[in-house]
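Recap from last week: sequence in, structure out.
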Amino acid sequence: MSKIRIDFLSTLPDCFSSVLNTGILRIAQEKNLIDFHIHNLHDYSDNKFGHIDDTPYGGGAGMLIKCQPVFDCINKLKNERDYDEIIYVTPEGKLFDQNMANELSLMKSIIILSGRYKGIDQRIRDSLITREISIGDYVLSGGELPSLVIADAIARLIPGALGDSESALTDSHMDGLLEPPQYTRPAIYNGMEVPKVLTSGNHKLITEWKEKKSREKTNKLRPDMLK
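Predicted structure tokens:
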């Protein structure tokens, strides 16, 4: 399997390094399963001061990221290789979910553009962006955190990234349900006991119990998923 490459485009590239060098994201890189590349949009500015934003036509509050630095950066990358998706993270995008993470994990090269200020010039979205993604119906200061959320969800799905390959397959949302309750040692703590079925050694009963509890939990916490 060829490794995945993810290019992050941002006005604040320092936001990425600590997260990308921690946990599963670090392990996936060390195992040569994924490559991350961070691009500072200020480096592509044609302004001597490195400015990449300007006021919107028609008035209104806030500043917009201009076409020039984004077009120059993305066109440079596209001249070097093919990209399966060029993603813009925005509250206006399609809600990110496990199915989308599964789909993206099968791709070879992805660009993720993080917005700032009031967003980006619409011509970037019309001409370059192939997919717009939101991680929720709320507004953040920029797209760096959503970009990292997407990268983490992708990385943990790559075979070999997790120490236990079954772990990702049993996560919440993988089968359309939430995970059942989970317990570990000791079997009794402060009078609270682990359900006896989990210590019975009867795998058939354990599987049935987990499926039942998953459905009950989903019905209670996320009934919308059962629809």
